UniProtKB/TrEMBL annotation:
<dbReference type="InterPro" id="IPR025997">
    <property type="entry name" value="SBP_2_dom"/>
</dbReference>
<dbReference type="GO" id="GO:0030313">
    <property type="term" value="C:cell envelope"/>
</dbReference>
<dbReference type="GO" id="GO:0030246">
    <property type="term" value="F:carbohydrate binding"/>
</dbReference>
<feature type="domain" description="Periplasmic binding protein">
    <location>
        <begin position="37"/>
        <end position="296"/>
    </location>
</feature>
<dbReference type="InterPro" id="IPR028082">
    <property type="entry name" value="Peripla_BP_I"/>
</dbReference>
<comment type="similarity">
    <text>Belongs to the bacterial solute-binding protein 2 family.</text>
</comment>
<dbReference type="Pfam" id="PF13407">
    <property type="entry name" value="Peripla_BP_4"/>
</dbReference>
<protein>
    <submittedName>
        <fullName>LacI family transcriptional regulator</fullName>
    </submittedName>
</protein>
<keyword id="KW-0732">Signal</keyword>
Amino acid sequence: MILIAGVLAAPLAACGGDGDSASSGSGNSGDDKIVLGFSQVGAESGWRTANTKSIQDSAKEAGIELKFSDAQQKQENQIKAIRSFIQQKVDVIAFSPVVESGWDTVLKEAKDAGIPVILTDRAVDSPDTSLYKSFIGSDFVVEGERAGDWLVKEYAGKTEPVNIVELQGTTGSAPANDRKKGFADKIAAAPNLKIIASQTGDFTRAKGKEVMEAFLKAHSDIDVLYAHNDDMGLGAIEAIEGAGKKPGVDIKIITVDAVKDGMQALADGKINFIVECSPLLGPQLMELVKKVKAGEAVEARILTNETTFTQEQAKAALPTRQY
Ligand code: GYE
């Protein structure tokens, strides 16, 4: 169970190479290709699948040799993968930390080995920012705020109680912590908007369904579901339909991500509002990797550009949605 599913995403680097085997001593396969070790969170959601594809495709395009490792949502697997990248003397390590805390030791090991680290997608809470070169990804607090803003507007002028249930992402992860906080901050402006239950669904469809079933059993008066990602929202839709209620009508639903399946449910009227979170971080990551390898200065924080979608906007955007 604890096996790391290591996959060499790029085919052997030397295929069709020029035969020049002068190595820079960086432990790569004999040519001058940059070797990037990437530790991915897992394959828990549609977002993650699109993110993995973006990283694999853009590494290929950039001519970067990618050593890809899937941690199956376990921090211990990520730490093992990073240690293995250090041993293999890769040129750069990038990873998306499953949770925020507990990275200092392994990041110091990378630093001591002289291997630069780039954070993608999720942050770490270490106060020592010298442990990584850059962090590229979304502002999850803003995403939560956008979800909260929409809800406050939706019920503007109404004073009767609005009962909200919340499906949180993976416990301890940056997107779960921040999306919860941003949302709570905004709905505080309307005292009738109340979170009556909040629990993790681990960013998966199966868990989203299971927890929503429990919510529905415990509370007969749910007005709104806020799910920290589309997949949990989609699982919850099955639970709501199973309980004989209409998602999007009897229970209003807000999610985050805007992957295709989520956008389809939004266009179909089963979700009411989606806050976008872009998984297409690959091209920017490869640019960063090249710069870091060349010893150039890079921005400490690179923010992803994102929007939000209503049902009408989802209908318009769906035909050209990439993921
Ligand atoms: O929203 C969720 C995924 O870290 C932004 O992780 C990412 C989140 C994304 O599982 O679907």
